[in-house]
Design a protein that fits this description.
There is one protein chain. With 108 residues, this protein is mainly alpha-helical.
Length: 108
């Protein structure tokens, strides 16, 4: 398993009930992910067509920016809901999990 895969598997959400929970911005996140996937598919087409490398790199930067913004929305939602709940219940493991997630995001 890759390092980031094991971090994901190890990050059990003890501050949530069960393996699934919803957040305020789920629809927005799903829309952002769909757009990023569509854009990335277009970039793949550009590579297949042999488009200019600079143009491909610029489009990849746009995809990265969209993914980073999606991460930001998820992070804010996580702080507003999961982490607030975890602090109220005394679940300090949630803070450790958040720190690990932030480290992985920052490695980008």
């Amino acid at each position: 398993m890759k390092e980031h895969d094991s971090a994901h598997v190890d990050a059990k959400h003890s501050h949530t009930e069960g393996p699934h929970h919803s957040h305020t911005h789920t629809k927005s996140v799903l829309n952002r992910l769909s757009r990023a996937i569509g854009h990335l598919t277009a970039v793949r087409g550009m590579v297949e067509e042999g488009r200019d490398c600079t143009e491909v790199l610029m489009q990849l930067a746009a995809v990265r920016s969209a993914i980073n913004k999606t991460s930001e929305v998820i992070l804010k939602d996580h702080l507003d809901h999961c982490i607030v709940d975890a602090i109220h219940s005394g679940d300090m493991d949630a803070i450790k999990e958040l720190n690990r997630a932030i480290e992985l995001i920052m490695k980008g």
